[in-house]
Every structure is written in structure tokens, then in C-alpha cells.
Design a protein that fits this description.
The structure holds two protein chains of two kinds. Chain A is an alpha+beta fold. Chain A has eleven helices and five strands. Chain B has one domain: Beta-Lactamase (2-Layer Sandwich). In chain B, about 35% of the residues lie in helices and about 30% in strands. Chain B is globular, with a radius of gyration of 13 Å. The chains are: A alpha+beta, B alpha+beta.
Amino acid sequence: MIDEIRTLTQRLADEPSSLAFLELGESLRRRGQVGAAYKVARGGLNRYPGLADAHDLMARILSDQGDFAGAFDAWADALRFDPMRTGALKGIAFLYFRAGDVDAALDHLHRAAEADPDDPAVPQAIARVRRDSREAGRAAFAPALEPLEAGTEEPVAGRPEPVPAPAAPPVPPSDSPFTGVAPEEEGLLLVDANGMCLAGSLTGRDGTDAAERVAAQLAGLTREAARATRLLGLGSWHSIAVESPDAHLFLASPTAETVLLAVREPELPMARVGLLAERATRAARGWLERVQ
Amino acid sequence: MSAAQVALDRVTRVPGVRGALIASSTDGLVVAEQLMDGVDGRAAAALTGSLVARLARTTAGAGLRAPVFLHLRGEGGSILAAPGTDGLVLVAVAGPEANVGLARLEMLNAAGRLG
């Protein structure tokens, strides 16, 4: 651990603008060096004020320091930049539980369960809160608060196999923004800022409904893309084309708070997927104006 | 000249490309870079690394293999990324007039030899 901290400290000294502060801050926190962890996290936040990971790290440190109000604010900031961040949802749930607001705690834990159905700590925490809702304390949440980095967790032994998401209810054709855009709306997805599906459908290669899994990953994408192009002097962002060996994906933003995803087979040239996405984006924009 | 420098040299020769770098996608650190003045390589590495990771999770959510090329288009230019092996990603920053098609081919070719 000490060697790891030394290595990370050196890396951060060599590259102050790197994201190594996230790993270093967390390592220091786990070692109980919360004062040093705080300084590292503060420096990272000053450099990357829009990075949800940085706010999440700061919240954990403040929580360890007993500054629960500060931790709440930091987790709320993390959710502002990444509404599906399970670490922040679990952290806020812990704080609500600690304050005796069981309903709010359960509400945030349920949201965390929706965001990451494979995290076994969340249903455990829900069960414990329900079973022992009168006892405030960190114990019920200890497993749920570790580790907090979505997408970077070590595999958990005995973790249940992912359960395919239930199929979305069929959308009446008249309610679809994509009517007339393409022969079928499969492969077109409209997602809101919270990573929830607004319209469309997407089937994974295994034949299960992939819309909700994919939508959850797209929460906060518009802000991340906007930040990247702005900081590199490229103005506002228009689109992202993504080539996978299995598919061509094209992302655009019908409004500031929504993302449109078009997915087609890799044999279809990306430029044509882009044209399809442009049509779908215009249609989605009009549809949103009508339904809002 | 190292393989990384050869890769960067080929990409930055493409008309309109303002610079290229090789970064670690796990921590956003710059491994090698060849940039014009005014292009913030560290920011490009960190931001692109984060975006690449997010889009890899997105494709995984649909049961698709990880992206091999990304093109983020802005009103004043583009960010191009080609993830390679060993957690490295080749990144290029291009102006609006750049030949993105040629840059893509050079990057895919170079990314396969990274690591």
C-alpha cells in the first residue's frame, strides 16, 4: 500500500493534470490518512470541477471526517454530473438512514439498484435497512459504500449472474418519435439526462433488451462531450461516431438534456448511420417539444 | 525513432491534424505526444480516456465488443481516438478542415501496433 501511494504520488507530481489523484486520494483514505486524502481530492476538484468521480471521492473523505453535510453536498454534486452514479446514491442513502429518514434512504438505494443491478451490496443494504430501520449506523451500509467506483470494482466472488433487463412495454406507434424515420425503431434510443429511456428500443447481441443497460451508461454523456470539446477549443459538440467490430453507433444530442443513439450493423457505412441519426435527432426534437 | 513516435508522426502528417498523443486509458496519463502549440495534451488525454471508458461500457451494455475508433465532432474540429492494446489509446485533435478519413486509417493502422 505504501509503495502504491509512493508511486501514485510520484505520478501525480510528474503529471499534475492526470486523473491519478482519484486513485491516490482513495488509497490515502483507505489508509486512514484523510487529511492528506482531502488535499489530494481538493486539488483534483479544482482542476476537474465537472468530474463526478472527483466529487464522489471528496464525499467519501468528508464522510470519513464526520462532515456529513459536506459529504451530502459533494455526493449531490456527483449526481448532478452523473445522475446514475451508484456510489453517490448509496452515500446519500447512508446519510438519510443515519438521519433517520428511512424512506429517503430506501428511495436512493432503489435508484442505485436500478443503476447497477449487479451490485450485490445494494440489495443487502436494502434488506438491512428494512430489517433494522430503527438503528442508525454505518454498519448496515459498510459493504454498500465499498468500493464506490462504478465500472472499476473488482469482481465479487459469488456475485449473481446479471439478470436480463425486463423488456420495455411496447410503445404505441403514435407515441414514437421515430415513426417515419426508419422502417423500425429498433436500434434507435432516446435517453434523458438521468440515463432513462424516453423512446426507442435496443436489443443486445444476446437477444435480451439492452435499452436500459445502455441508457444508464449514457447519463451525463452530453456534459462530458461538451467539456471535452470546450476545453480543447473545439466549441460545442455535434456528434460522436463509435466503431465497434460488431456495430456502428452514432450519438447526437437533440436537446441539451437528451442523447440520441443510433445503432446499425457494421456493414452500413458510418456516414449513413450518421444521416439516419440526424433524421432521428430532428424527429426527437419535435417530439420532445410536443410531449413536454 | 520509436514505434510510438512513428505512429504520432504518421498521424500528425495528415492535413488538418493539430496534434496526436498516446495516453493510458486507465489513468489518462500521456505516454508520448506530438502537438501544435495551444493544444493541451494532458487535458486531451484525460478527457478522451474518460470518454473512451464510458463508450466501452456502453457497447458492453449492448453485448458489443469494445470500440476500435471514436470520432467526437465539435463545431471547431474533432477529437479522434483509437484504443490499442495494453490500455493505450491513440488520440488526435483535428481542425474542421482535417481529412478525417485519412486520419482514421492512419490511426487504426498505428493503434494495432501500440503496446
